[in-house]
Every structure is written in structure tokens, then in C-alpha cells.
Amino acid sequence: MSRSVAPLFEPFAFNGLELANRVVMAPMTRSKSPNGVPGEDVAAYYRRRAENETGLIITEGTTVNDPVSKGDANIPDFHGEALKGWKHVVDEVHGVGGKIMPQLWHVGITRVQENAPYPELPSAGPSGLVKPGKQIAEPMTKDHVQRVIDAFGRAAADAREVGFDGVEIHGAHGYLIDQFFWEGLNQREDQFGGDLTQRTEFAVKIIEAIRREAGKDYPLILRFSQWKQQDYTARLAPTPDDLGAFLKPLSEAGVDCFHASTRRFWEPEFDGSSLNLAGWTKKLTGKPTITVGSVSLSGEFIGSFMGESSEATGIDDLLERLEAGEFDLVAVGRALLVDPAWARKVHEGRFSDLMPFDPKALATLS
Ligand SMILES: Cc1cc2nc3c(=O)[nH]c(=O)nc-3n(C[C@H](O)[C@H](O)[C@H](O)COP(=O)(O)O)c2cc1C
């Protein structure tokens, strides 16, 4: 007999944002916004998830205003002409009672220069390292670092202006903010480098800029991960004490909610406890947290980029942890990419109707 799904459909609130339930759509890059402007198809894609009981949508990564912030012309911008497209997305989602935040992104040194807009400009990273030991560019100048901090602040003010319900900062997966967090790519000797606590300074300055530009009452999520696309086994914080030292300055700077990105939500983060990364983050900061990683699917997401399918599975373990208060919200990625009605089906107990993940879904915006 399956567990009750009721804990997943209880309301939740943080910093004034009232969510109807605990289901969050995970940010997923779709690269379907020609010239960086999200169109009608993108708006309809998000609206379909909202009208099917997804409590909060976090959009695909959308890039802040810096010429080298994105790696592909079809990734949506979060400045200029794109803001009109985003306003339409927000209106569509709000029109059916949904909530939505953009995921603000800068890819940093992972940008493949030749394939990106402005191919004449070098990609930007804290120390110019594309992976540990391999330098491909000059370190970012202090002036460039400041311009990116300002761009995040501006983007949050624009998000508020356009009507978004808050913002998520992409501090995970080895992109720019995470490049500053990670010793392997951050060898700076100025205020933005140093030990793990000191390497949070870039993110702290971004959080402060967002607070200044968009207000203290504007909901702010920070996504972070131990793993990096450059190294799946990398760990920013090998022990709970390290994790506490990493999270403290970020929490104090004004993060409302932490989105702890893992590939399998059930994996214990440290020996001696079953708590996952979101569980530890909640315990250490006292702030709300979002868990993520293979919810209702048999295989994890990196495999899906290699063409692997995943079967639909039950969610009893997830429900048990949620009910126990280990974390507060649950982000669902591929299961919601393939099926806009995932949340409604779960709410109605229609588990046999849940769809497997087929990588062919990556080609469409259904
Ligand atoms: C097609 C695709 C695109 C993604 N793009 C992003 C992104 O833009 N930003 C981000 O933080 N994570 C991104 N992710 C990771 C997801 O947010 C999520 O953490 C991951 O898919 C694990 O959740 P799942 O197992 O439920 O799919 C992406 C994942 C997929 C499958």
C-alpha cells in the first residue's frame, strides 16, 4: 500500500511567497528562445505545468546582461527585448494561478567561445581555469567581476518589475558562481578567493546586490551543488562543518531558501546520517530547502543526455522524508519535462499514468 501524497500537497510559504503545494519545477535549459527571446511556445509550455498543479515553476537558466554570460544563442536572455517575452510567460502562468521565478545564470568559463554569441570575446572565469590545472583565459578583472554582480542585481529588479514571484540564483553545477565557490577553479588572491568561506564572497555580493535592487521582501532562492560538470565527484564541503561554514555567509547575506542540487535525492550526504544535502542544509541554516534528483524516475539526469531512458517509479521514500520535515519543497525535473500533468496525476494517485522519461522529449516543448 502506497503512502498518502498529502504532504506533497500542503501549502508552504517563505518571505511572503505563498505556494499551494510543495511541487517545484526544476530549472531546465531548453534552448528554444531564438535570439534569446522566449516566445509563445515557451509561455504555453510553462502555463501547462502551472495549470496542472505545479506549485512553483523555476524557469530554465536565463542569462544576466554580460556579453559572455551564455553559450548558445537560443538560451533566453534576462535583459533587453527578452523581458517582454518573459512578461508574457509570467502573465500566462499567473493567469492560471501559478507562481514562477526565473533562474538567473552566467555560464562563466564553461562557455564554448567558438559556438557562443560574441565568439571574439574570451570566456570568463575567476582564474581563467576551465578545469583544475587548465587555464584558457586571463582571470576575470575586478571590474568585470563587479559588472557581473551589478548585472545580477539589475536582473532581480527587472524580475520584480516584470512580475516574477522571486528569483533563483544559479550557483550550481560548475557555472560561474560555482566556479568561484570551487577551489579547483578559483585561485584568486583578492577578496573573491581564499578558503571556502572566502570563496562565497562573489555570491554574497550578488545576494546583497539583489537585496538592494529588488528589496528585502523579494523571495530569493540560491541553488548550489557539491558536484560539478567538470568533476562529478567534486565536493565543496566534505564534512558537515565545512557545509556549515559555506552556507553561513550565504544565509546571512539574505538567501530565503536553498535549493540543494543532487542527482539522486535519497543519497545520504555524509556518513552516519540518512539526511541528504537538502536535509543537512535545512538543519545547519534553519532555512527552507528544496530537494531534487531522480524524483519518480529510475535513472539520473546526466544519463538522459547520453540518450538513456528512465522508468517511472513510486515516491514513497520521498513522501516519508518530506513528512518527517527533512526538506520543505521537492523539485521535479525530467518527469515534468516529459509530462506537464505530473503533479496532478500524483495528487490524484494516478501513479500508473506517470510517464517514463524518453530523451526524445528534449527535442520538443510539449
Ligand atoms: C534538459 C535539462 C536541462 C537542465 N538545465 C538546467 C539549468 O538550466 N539549470 C539548472 O540549475 N539545472 C538544470 N538541469 C538540472 C535539473 O534542474 C535537475 O537538477 C536534474 O534534471 C535532476 O532532476 P531530475 O532527476 O528530476 O531530472 C537540467 C536538466 C535537464 C534534464
Considering the chains and any ligands shown, give keywords for the structure.
8-stranded parallel β-barrel, TIM Barrel, 31% helix, two-stranded antiparallel ribbon, alpha/beta, 366 residues, binds flavin mononucleotide
Descriptive report:
- The chain contains 11 helices and 12 strands.
- It is of the alpha/beta class and 366 residues long.
- The chain has a single domain, classed as Aldolase class I (TIM Barrel, Alpha-Beta Barrel).
- The chain is globular.
- The mean pLDDT is 97.
- Bound molecules: flavin mononucleotide (FMN).
Topology:
Blueprint (H helix, E strand, L loop, with lengths): L11 E3 L2 E3 L3 E3 L14 H11 L5 E8 L18 H14 L4 E6 L23 E3 L2 E2 L6 H21 L4 E7 L2 H6 L19 H14 L5 E9 L11 H14 L3 E5 L15 H9 L3 E4 L8 H5 L10 H8 L5 E4 L1 H5 L3 H6 L19
Parallel strand pairs: 3-4, 3-12, 4-5, 5-8, 8-9, 9-10, 10-11, 11-12
Antiparallel strand pairs: 1-2, 6-7
Helix pairs in contact: 1-2, 3-5, 6-7
| Distance between the first and last residues' Cα | 33 Å
Level-2 CATH architecture? Alpha-Beta Barrel
The total number of structural domains is 1
Encode the helix/strand succession as letters.
EEEHEHEEEHEHHEHEHEHHEHH
The profile of the biggest β sheet is:
8 strands, parallel, barrel
Q: What ligand molecules are bound, each kind once?
A: flavin mononucleotide
Shape: globular
Under CATH, the topology is which?
TIM Barrel
Overall average residue pLDDT: 97
CATH superfamily: Aldolase class I
- The DSSP helix count reads 11
Spans with pLDDT under 50 lasting ≥5 residues?
none
Radius of gyration: 19 Å
Strand content: 15-25%
What is the helix fraction of residues, given as a range?
25-40%
**Spatial ordering of strands, largest sheet:** 3-4-5-8-9-10-11-12
Main CATH class? Alpha Beta
